[in-house]
From TrEMBL:
This is histidine kinase. The keyword Metal-binding applies. Residues 1-90 form the B12-binding N-terminal domain. Belongs to the methylamine corrinoid protein family. GO terms for cellular component: membrane. Residues 499-606 form the Histidine kinase domain. It catalyses: ATP + protein L-histidine = ADP + protein N-phospho-L-histidine. The gene is ypdA. Keywords: Cobalt, Isomerase, Kinase, Metal-binding, Transferase, Two-component regulatory system. Residues 90-221 form the B12-binding domain.
Amino acid sequence: MASFSLENLIQAVIDGNAVKVREEVKRALAAGIEPARIITDGFVAAMDVVGERFERNEIYVTDLIITARAMHTGLKELKPLMLAGKVQPVGRAIVGTVQGDIHDIGKNLLAIMLEASGFEVIDLGVNVAPSTFVEAVIKHRPDVLCLSALLSSTRKGMEETITALREAGWRDKVKVVVGGTPLNEKIAARMGADGYAPDATAAIPLIKSLIGADRKRRAVLAPATLDLFFGEGSLEDLQRAFTRMTGLHLVMVDAAGRPLTSLGGFLECSRHCHLLKENPARAQDVTTLQGNFKEAFIYRCHAGLVEISYPLANEDGTVGAVLCGHCLLRGDPDPADLKAAVPVLSLTDLEAVCGLLSFVSGQIMQLNTVLLVNKELEDQQASFIHFLKRQHQLEQALKDAELKALQSQVNPHFLFNSLNTVARLALLEGAANTEKMVRALARLMRYSLYQVKGTVSLAEEIAAVRDYLFIQETRFSDRVRSRVEVEEAAMQARLPCMVLQPLVENAIIHGLEPKEEGGEITVSARLVGDQVRVEIRDDGVGIPPEVKKAIFDLEVRRSGKGQVSGLGIVNVYRRLQHHFGSNCALDVASMPGKGTCVQLTFPYTVD
């Protein structure tokens, strides 16, 4: 077993050879290699090499994905053993892409590399709401929460998630690491994250560093929890009872050596030891004793007296110690100038005292653990109650918003009825064009008012676009011309309401209107396999490259540093994503002076 090499496994991962990786994992297991070693000495070692090559630009994201998938194939072989408890996870991580973003390549890569590094991973998927992240943190109690985003417009989802954690009372109980294209260290720090990683390879050492420091911090702070177990005066009662039983003095200290009670009779001997330490001519070296002492540390102090130290420790580290002393062993000479009486014990007696200390210390740690668990449960309950209250407030705010939305429809509804009346009057007076214009406006208003929440057929959406185009052609006379070309087979496809009109409006206002001689806009739709492809094309002024780039960057609009058109495009894309997930696309092709083409692609579905 000791001679078995994992070099072939490492190379197979680096090469991205999934079949070879699976074979090498099976060979390693058959040779008796522990799953934990396969992960640390095999997968982690391989990904260290891959990460270094990626940082030196010797390989690219595509290569990184291939190697990660190959490694994931090997992890599947180890997963049953991991679930059976044969591999102790080094930590627990929750990963997810924030609300409004459906990109998952970076998130998936991080999840795979975390698993390869020995983490238990809970993957929440994409488009994850802040409340869902909070619920997962409360349920799973991870060491780290990893938030991913690709679109700058969804960066706000990260801030909202961190804020939700803080409001729920869980922000200080989990490390938050953010990553993605629209971020950097300054932005991550500003939103309140603990760390930022530009890619999955950089995230692994960062996460290990963060949770390692956090566990060390918890271990240092843990001694303060000891006095939560003992009520007022109970430590002194324990000291007195122990002294009556054994004749020795007992002191409990925290991990830093600070006494949790008065030193009592322990003080006189301790002061004597300290004085002798300052007088090298009379002091003895501290020496340790060997025997069956139940994990206690037995040593002689500078005065030659026997002192016992028994550690109090849990999985987070040492939280304190029980000190017991002082005494002499039979046959020891009396120390000079010691005023306090010192018990004399046999080696058997000393071993019995250590056994008693072992029992007392074990009971203290068990009861202290119970207390800590109860306190954590109380904190969780309080946090969850706070979280539920916050959710109730949000639900109430949503109800208020819905009520205001209903109230806001009253005036448009009155206007819609008035427009119909005007249209009838125009028809009676013989103003046919006026009647057509008013009726088109009324239909468009009714369509936008009553169907925003649901999906509609492409035929209904095209009808609304025709009404809008008729109004604009009437308004601009011969400066705006339009054509609508839709395949009959695509007419019943379902899509969110009012996604085409904003794009047509952008084409007219920003493309054709600034052009002195005007131009033409064409709306077309057809089936391509099981997808619907819609194009809104104009021969207008086009979009400058810097404006096209800024269209999908909401930070420009937030900062107020300039006017950027295209908010309708972002809104349309978000609504398509919300309905179709990753099975949709929006593409903008434009050249200044040559016009613009916006192309939508989404699945063909019918009721």
